[in-house]
Amino acid sequence: MNKTYSRISAAMLAAGMLVIPSCSKKEPAPASSQAAPTAAATTAAPSETQNTEETTLPAPVFAYTGQLDAIVKAKSTWFAEGDSEMRYAVTDLDMNGRYEITAAKKTSFTMYEVTEDGSGIAKVEAPFEQGSTGPYMEEEYKLRISKEGAYVYVAREADDTDSAGETTTYYYLVSLYNGKITAEVIASEMKDSEGNVRYGDDEFQISKEDFKQKTDKGLPAVEHIQKVSWGSADAVSGMNDAKALEAICFKLTK
Fold it and tell me: Which of 63, 88, 224, 249 matches a 20 to 30 Å C-alpha distance to 243?
């Protein structure tokens, strides 16, 4: 199918059954806690259908104190005034201890990350033009560790139904690392007007089992599950302080 990066979306998480409340107020951590969570994380490039040994991380403890204030302060940068279709969420998809704020809808996507000094936000680099293509907005992201040591997750993007009544959903392996998003198509799911489903990868039709292998079973074990709280434009419009912004913060449930 050779789907180009102009259509890529990066939709939007230690060991054990850890539950971290959204936007927890913790004492500032040493600067070293802002580093990537694994020593092996030297590259962001996600690998297709990796089947590596399970990696166990210590429970991540990050100091997010003050970061919501920085996001609120920069609201004029990320909030699309007058766009009622836009949705917003605060995440930490790379688990580096710095929040991201994402503004997204079906045809638009923009992500910013809190800077290392916590004083502001910076636009995340992406292999597609932000502001023109949007992710399929999931409510849950399963974070895995690639063999390169970067966090990766599967995200979906659905095409509009074509003239023959078939809708194609593309599955991407996505990574956010060092302020940059990388993404690659790993599989697709095509459903016709009668409900019949077929599957493909970037070039050929594949079986349902091969599809599951590419999008789940063949990937590294899930290390974190991140619940995302997407806030509507109307709701976020009135969120003008850090306390209010907690309503759209993620929850880490594994």
Answer: 224
Residue 148 DSSP code: T
* Residue 34 per-residue DSSP state: G
123-145 CB burial, b ≥16 within 10 A, e <16: ebebebebeebbbbbbeebbbbb
- The span from the CA of 231 to the CA of 111, in Å, is 15
Look up residue 230 and give its two tokens. 């997407």
| pLDDT tier for residue 2 given thresholds of 50, 70 and 90 | very low
SS3 at position 8: coil
Domain residue ranges in the chain: 5-252
Q: 185 φ, ψ to 5°? A: -70, 130
Q: What is the pLDDT of residues 181-239, one digit of tens each?
A: 988 899 999 999 999 999 999 778 999 999 999 999 999 999 999 998 899 999 999 99
Q: What is the distance of C-alpha 144 from the center of its chain?
A: 12
The CA-based angle 243-57-30, given to 5 degrees, is 55
